[in-house]
């Protein structure tokens, strides 16, 4: 049998696409960036192409069809987004979205390069947002950060304004103390050293006084500098801690669709490394910048007071340095923001691979993931190298200008001394001051780099803080002390972006009633459950609990009365007891044990090495799927919810484990309004009513026997499952008969006693 190499085939198709691109280029048209589009609209692997030239944007589908758009069109915008490991590029024009390309994140570096070049060459449209993703996700703006975004940190500094004022006064005083010694060189040179060279005696008392003044200035500067550094470092650490806490707390309030459009590594990077970067800027570089500004201003005032003409000469390099800072700042600002995005891709690979290491190893994809990390890391290195090239030229240039300025001062100062317009002491003081002046000027130019880094980090932080939840808290929430569990859905509608998922749904559920939601995949069952939990808000109609719209309740108060048992239970790293008591942290050990007994989890917990104090490992990896599910049931039992949601709670376990879980569920649903989703219709026999959904609408409601007698949508679903079960049983029997036949054949060929 002949085997085909899929990698070789893919490379051959890519080469064919590349040749097709070359054939479409006009004379003198240059290709700037190419992205292999390896997914089609249904997220199947494909071999398309997206190319940017200096004249147009070209797109090729897997079927070989080409589209093109001229870059001269001013309304064209290109938006990037990634969701669940799939990258998306949307081309948007005045009439809406013109085209969409999807690709695996292995192509992300190439897509980022194309995005940057497109933004540089295309004229951005005024206004006009990109059309939303099918899931209603909003791509984050890629506009470069402004340095002014750092001023928004002022609200975090407001609680510490007294300490900051004290720090500013200490900085002012310590800077003034450091400017005293150069001024004392004037009388030391003119009144003591130069007269001594001319044959006069050195006045010991006067020298001692000047030296004591120099020592006092040094000690004062040291003490004030230590105090202001320590004080401002304490304040900046607290500002950084507040920024981290506020960002994380705000992140927890955002809806599920926000997290669906973001990657874990990127969010971790923002809250971790970005806030650390801002903290370092506030504790070190902002203080240095303030000191530099004060030093330059105060030095300039002293220089002008000593000799205005020489002071003007001193300031000659200043306009050139300011112009260089202005030019380089723009490049650094966009560069550091891009570095942040690229670095988040590196952390995204880690965040994807480490939690999914079992899948990586199961499919022997270690090399693929290593190559993916290598690609992201190499692109990160490339972006950093490009930025370092700019920065490495800027810093020596500033140093060169300051050295030239110092030479100008020396030359002009010597000429002034020769003409008798200033004394040697004045020139010496000028040189001492000018050294400090240019040192601070050079230091300020270096701070441009860290300032732009901090601005890029602050922008990414405020992108989170500026995001408003689409599940808002009510202005005047209704108190929710007691819940009976009556649920009424009236003309409910919900849409993801422009795609309607729930339409015109009416359903009433009585307190203590168990409802089973059934239907084909994509019929809207999970979406309806998410709406009841208020993970999303309805776009039409209302959902009422005990006669009150759930949007009038405080979100946290409402969800305390809702218990949720998921198909894939999530356990946190910690002990069994901590996971059971997650919804009620103050629960006693007796309450935890009672919940575990009711969930049929007590026996297997006692068999663990440390019982309820046994660590379950990250995501509960130390337990089987059935054991994790029973712990999640115990967790729901402990909070004693009046409304219970069961989302495929027994679909991922074997038959014996399902029986144990079903016993636990029987205890859980007693006296509670229960809504259960299950693909296996046999598990919903105990439901009071079954609600059959199709394409976001309720098509049938009733008990099992009545719906079977009706022979409608539910009957067809049930019959399809019976046929599938019969086929699986038939296949199993055939396999068993085949195994017996093989065994008999082997026995006949090798009877007992044969050698």
TrEMBL record:
Top-level taxon: Bacteria
Cellular compartments per GO CC: plasma membrane
Localization, UniProt: Cell membrane
Gene3D superfamilies, per database record: ABC transporter type 1, transmembrane domain, P-loop containing nucleotide triphosphate hydrolases
SMART domains reported for this sequence: AAA
Keyword Lipid biosynthesis: no
Alphabetically ordered keywords of this record: ATP-binding, Cell membrane, Membrane, Nucleotide-binding, Transmembrane, Transmembrane helix, Transport
Protein name listed in UniProt: ABC transporter ATP-binding protein
Organism from which the protein derives: Variovorax guangxiensis
